[in-house]
Write a structure and sequence with these properties.
Number of helices: 8
CATH architecture: 3-Layer(aba) Sandwich
Structural class: alpha/beta
CATH class: Alpha Beta
Number of strands: 8
Oligomer: single chain
Radius of gyration: 18 Å
Strand content: 15-25%
Strand order of the largest sheet: 3-2-1-4-5-8-6-7
Largest sheet: 8 strands, mixed
Distance between the termini: 50 Å
């Protein structure tokens, strides 16, 4: 196997808290050679299918916060995005995405910031679409003040989301049920989808219009609008498949 394939695969497989989490996007998978031994992922294909039909990606300027190994960054580029700006605090993951972009001839359309995103930084640029997928429930753990209590972390999550209304026109948000990913620290009463949805709707409604909330169908795995049938928590499918996806439009940016 060529050296570049070994180095990319080694970067992908580096052990860390969020390693081996995402699929490798087909746009760059060929660079790794045989990927049959890599993880099965977490509904990346199904989420990307939803993004392709629901988001204005063609010609868009995209921000991917906590891009991990870049599945949705490369998915946006394949969907016609003009440029993707990535933030990733895991140095190996950041290097993996940057090297993949370079070797795939996409370096001019992807910028990698190998650091954690500052949700309260002054706005110096704006974006058409932003992905913030399964990041904010790690506030006070992977990033932010580690001395925060859970109530303060919840408040800061909402404050950061409100601030982002001046940064991006469309935000795709996904949030876990447990603070820091710890089942002993539930963020929402009973781990119910309704409680999570209310947290977002009531906390950022002055800054964002929630255009759609979707969850995966446990049989087809396709993302479908929230309804009375799929709103109750389904423990049989695991915590991740219960996490809703929010498509939100800024009240600040036209």
């Amino acid at each position: 196997m060529p050296t570049n394939q070994l180095s990319l695969k080694d970067l992908y497989l580096q052990r860390s808290k969020h390693a081996n989490y995402q699929l490798v996007h087909p746009l760059v998978a060929r660079l790794l050679g045989d990927t049959s031994d890599l993880p099965a992922g977490k509904l990346e294909v199904e989420r990307q299918a939803y993004f392709d039909r629901a988001l204005p990606l063609l010609g868009a300027k995209v921000l991917d916060i906590g891009c991990n190994t870049g599945y949705f960054s490369f998915g946006a580029l394949q969907g016609g995005a003009r440029h993707v700006c990535c933030y990733e605090g895991n140095q190996e993951h950041a290097a993996f995405v940057a090297h993949c972009a370079e070797q795939a001839g996409l370096a001019d359309r992807l910028t990698m910031n190998a650091c954690y995103f500052d949700f309260m930084a002054p706005v110096t640029d704006t974006y058409d679409v932003t992905f913030c997928l399964n990041v904010l429930h790690h506030l006070g753990d992977d990033f932010g003040d580690r001395n925060l209590g859970m109530d303060a972390a919840r408040s800061q999550m909402l404050e950061g989301l409100r601030h982002m209304a001046g940064l991006t026109r469309v935000l795709v948000l996904q949030l876990g049920f447990n603070w820091k990913g710890d089942v002993a620290c539930p963020l929402f009463e009973g781990g119910e989808k309704a409680a999570l949805i209310d947290f977002v709707a009531q906390g950022v409604g002055d800054s964002w219009v929630i255009e759609e909330v979707t969850v995966p169908n446990p049989v087809t795995r396709q993302y479908e609008p929230i309804s009375e049938d799929n709103l109750p928590r389904n423990n049989a499918i695991g915590e991740f498949m219960n996490r809703p996806l929010f498509k939100m439009r800024s009240r600040v940016l036209a």
